[in-house]
Design goal:
The protein is α/β, with parallel strands linked by helices. It contains 13 helices and 17 strands. The chain is 35% helix and 21% strand.
Length: 435
Amino acid sequence: MKEERIAESSSWIDPRGQVMKTPDDVAEMLRLRACGWGLKRIARQLGCSHHTVKDYVAAGGVKPFKSPERPKRLDGLEGWLRERLIRHRGNADVVRQDLLAEQGVAVSRRTLQRAVQPYRQALKAEALATTRFETPPGRQLQIDFGERLVEIGGARVKAFVFVATLGHSRRLHVRAFRAERQEHWFAGLESTFTTFSGVPEEVLMDNPRALVVRHDAVSRSVQFNDKLIAFAKHWGFRPRACAPYRARTKGKTENGVGYVKKNAIAGHSFASWEAFEAHLAGWEREVANVRIHGTTGEAPIARFARDEAHRLKPLSGQPSFGSLRELTRVVGHDCAVEIDTNSYSVPWRLIGERVAVTIAAGEVRIRHGMREVAVHKQSDGRRLRIIDTAHLDGVAGRNGAVRRAEIAAAVLAPSSPPSLLRPLAEYEAVVGGSF
């Protein structure tokens, strides 16, 4: 083969000071090498060092250049950044403030945006991903509210529609209310239990303020409203809340609310609120629960009768929760609050403090601020002291030595009539005359 020396060969110097050849030159190196040329001969032909030819031949082509990895200011903080991005619902500015305050690391907004971008994409994908699961019969009831303007008596009225759906059979129950307060959630649930003649194991809800006090997005810890806890105990179910910002885990009822709005309400007008309620009851009975469900392929009422009705907890004549009472009391010097002539103990350090009392389902629950401080079984007697000895911790010292003798004496004293129940002679002495 006749050698034709290439007079000029395109090349440049990389950041490491090494000669970089063009892709065409590298391809020519490989072609000549395949023809049996030696490294030095190829180097002379292309006008470069034989070491350069050797490197390219060994690499089998163009060698991509990679800048050396430099340490980054956010290295080692990946887990912290992900946790904070979740906590602040994707707000990178707040994450950047926490980064400076807690980690002492100052970075630009753009730097932080680049650092959290992979986590943001993962969170978005996680929020969209939903795994469908089939709920066992009697396991779960899903509840939700939806708003809709309804024409009633010639006027457009905002209606709040409560929708409950059994997870297995998809049997649905609907109630309309004029508001969405806690009592309406409870009324909707009690109406559902009565209609279905039973109670499921758990009730899944979103995170409405009327029922859920706090739901931490990171730890997933849930604090339910005290009255909801009492309501759940009264009826014998377990409350459960969806993961924050992820109501899709409650998809059966989410779909149910939309179905009610579009199928039962849209395009209809009603002479009165009573007519609207009657229409919903008829639609539930004659349409919603007898149609062939798109997922199960069966009518919800048939699936309910066959698989689910006998799995619900019977009502057994359970009365309505409406008898619940809420009171406010001030803790007395005997470490107790008085309710219906009976005294119920609380921790002694709360003497003089104002507490909230909830009485329901045979229990007395006492709360100070947002913290539950005492739970007692409600007494049917009168003028009794119901004492939890744990509430006296700190009153008695070691080896039985009493630190707060006046408190111990007040708590352990036998029941006595209230001070207002005095002999009539004392009142006669004050007002004069006789009774």
